[in-house]
Amino acid sequence: MFRPILSFAATLLLLITAQASEDAHLSKPVLPDLSMKQNGLPFSLIQGYLNYKVVATHFRTDKKELRYILANPVAYHALEQGKKVMPEGSKIVKIGWNVKPMELFPAALEADRIQRVEYMVKDSKRFDHNGDHWGYARFVKKGDAYTSWKGAINDCISCHSVASGNDFLFATMQRRFE
Ligand code: HEC
Question: What's the confidence (pLDDT) of residue 40?
Answer without folding.
Answer: 97
